[in-house]
Amino acid sequence: MVTASRPDRIIADPQKFRVQVGPSAIDGQGAFADEAIPAKRKIGEIRGEFIDVALARQRAREAERSTGRIFMIAISDKRAVDATHSVDALRFVNHSCAPNVVLKVQQGRIAFYALRDIASGEELTARYGTTHHAGRLLCRCGATQCLGRL
Known about the structure:
Blueprint: E1 2-6, E2 9-12, E3 19-23, E4 29-33, E5 42-46, E6 49-52, H1 53-66, E7 72-74, E8 79-82, E9 94-95, E10 101-106, E11 109-114, E12 125-126
Parallel strand pairs: 9-12
Antiparallel strand pairs: 1-2, 3-4, 5-11, 6-8, 7-8, 10-11
């Protein structure tokens, strides 16, 4: 798919598979495969505003107090992406201790890849890794091998 941002410029759509947002049994809204996704394939990307990590931490604290929803992803020890205003459905990928996708940062871009075959309608989940919660947030992924906290 391609989208035209200006008549003289065409930008490739970073989404490779259809993903829909809907209510999640894990937490709030989730991202769901809208078609079957084969293992090891790139699903798509999350875009957003590039900011420094200090500002990302400040915005995360503010968002946690106001909405409880944080859409920040560190891409290095100095930079982060604020996807709060992104239209990319993949920003709603919830955490799971038994994920079906992996998040990879490549040249400053945030991409998701399928770890296994994913059925249409299945919620997309990733292991968040280190978060600002520092083990204080209860995990609600429901996986049999759930670690219990984020």
